[in-house]
């Protein structure tokens, strides 16, 4: 199952950039004992990397039983993180210091969705 973005994923992510901020939707499914590892990763992200790259956690919460979903589509945790740009996100994941802590995330998860979202422009 997919957990981490690869080089081709990041290139496509930047190529599709509409400009402006991006909110990353994270849907996380933990491995056995993975929540504690992920919390260690999240602490490093919050303390060191998000401030450096202008990121901000908008929401984090535990997933409950899905009201509408196919079997296997329930998630352990939902996380929304806002970045000032797609480039800021890519710069963060390219940071050598980030590479030192990202293994905690990789080992913590059995599956993840990392989906960029852009805010709708209000219709007048």
From TrEMBL:
<feature type="domain" description="DUF1330">
    <location>
        <begin position="36"/>
        <end position="110"/>
    </location>
</feature>
<dbReference type="InterPro" id="IPR010753">
    <property type="entry name" value="DUF1330"/>
</dbReference>
<dbReference type="InterPro" id="IPR011008">
    <property type="entry name" value="Dimeric_a/b-barrel"/>
</dbReference>
<protein>
    <submittedName>
        <fullName>Uncharacterized conserved protein, DUF1330 family</fullName>
    </submittedName>
</protein>
<dbReference type="Pfam" id="PF07045">
    <property type="entry name" value="DUF1330"/>
</dbReference>
């Amino acid at each position: 199952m997919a957990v981490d973005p690869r080089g081709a994923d990041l290139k496509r992510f930047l190529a599709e950039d509409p400009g402006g901020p991006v909110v990353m939707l994270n849907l996380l499914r933990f491995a056995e004992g993975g929540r504690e590892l992920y919390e260690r990763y999240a602490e490093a992200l919050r303390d060191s990397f998000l401030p450096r790259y202008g990121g901000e956690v908008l929401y984090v919460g535990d997933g409950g039983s899905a009201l509408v979903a196919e079997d296997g589509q329930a998630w352990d945790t939902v996380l929304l993180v806002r970045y000032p740009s797609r480039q800021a996100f890519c710069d963060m994941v390219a940071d050598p210091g980030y590479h030192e802590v990202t293994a905690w995330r990789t080992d913590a998860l059995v599956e993840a969705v990392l989906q960029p979202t852009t805010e709708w422009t209000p219709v007048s």
